[in-house]
Amino acid sequence: xxDPALPAARPTVDPRRLSAVPQPAGQRAPGGTQGGTVFDIKxxxxxxxxxxxxxEVNFTVTRNEITALIGPSGCGKSTxxxxxxxxxxxxxGARVEGTVAYHGKNIYDQGVDPVEVRRRIGMVxxxxxxxxxxxxxxxxxxxxxxxxxRTELADIVEDSLRKAALxxxxxxxxxxxxxxxxxxxxxxxxxxxxxxxxxxxxxxxEPCSALDPIATARIEELMVDLARQFTIVIxxxxxxxxxxxxxxxxxxSTEVNELSDTRTGVLxxxxxxxxxxxxxxxxxxxxxxxxxxx
Length: 294
Ligand SMILES: Nc1ncnc2c1ncn2[C@@H]1O[C@H](COP(=O)(O)OP(=O)(O)OP(=O)(O)O)[C@@H](O)[C@H]1O
Ligand SMILES: [Mg+2]
Known about the structure:
Keywords: ATP-binding, Nucleotide-binding, Translocase, Transport. The chain has a domain at about 35-130 and about 200-290: P-loop containing nucleotide triphosphate hydrolases (Rossmann fold, 3-Layer(aba) Sandwich). It has helices at about 75-85, 115-120, 135-145, 150-165, 165-170, 185-195, 215-225, 240-245, 275-280, 285-290; strands at about 35-50, 50-60, 65-70, 95-100, 105, 120-125, 200-205, 230-235, 250-255, 260-270. α6 packs parallel to α7. The chain contains 10 helices and 10 strands. Adenosine-5'-triphosphate (ATP) binds near residues 77, 78 and 79.
């Protein structure tokens, strides 16, 4: 199950040590209590065929923090996010250049198994996408295909549903179809399905964009709680959400290529979230976060 080409992930935290009570980002120790760089992204360009969608991206992701990627539509947030767990490999013509170092090892190096990369670095999508299976089978799916023993599945399902703050709502109907859950519940189920594989990092691409404000608040609380155990990178169009939940923010924008009349995404600024939203150093960031642009 482990890939010798990748450095060992840190051991999974004992779930019993995790409090079920979510805390706002401000109440967590800055940088998480464990510190440490999980990703060091250096000079990353992502192409779709000849088209350079994002260029020269450099930033770091710190353990137990929430890092938000923000910026106008088309600036490459989803593209960059997918490059962090080799999800772009699944798109024909997509290509990543530069280095995505995960605990010091480039995940694009020869010999690195992309399936193992995606187990360590899980992903939750914009639209909840439960399988047309029971609630139990959705969460058990990943562990099953990774060969986890049948006798261990029930514990993993319960633990994952608890961590995703869904257990109390579904514990009496685990055999029912996941498709009968509400949108917000489906998204929490997808989070449970992702964390059932004990990843270290959870990537989330606009996980609340299809949800109402109450379901959104629930997921935001959940993210803050999950950041005690996991490292989270989230794409969001919701400025308040980025400001509320994240520790660091990367602001992307686009540059027009005059010759080809195409737009390439660039990272304008990366800093503590508080700084990005109060005293950004680039005028483009200020215009965006104050709503004057985009
Ligand atoms: N599968 C693909 N094939 C070709 N080009 C793509 C593909 N996916 C994205 N692109 C292009 O890459 C650029 C960045 O797209 P991306 O979806 O990453 O932007 P985004 O910042 O996530 O936008 P949004 O906020 O609308 O989700 C865009 O010009 C887009 O058209
Ligand atoms: Mg996107």
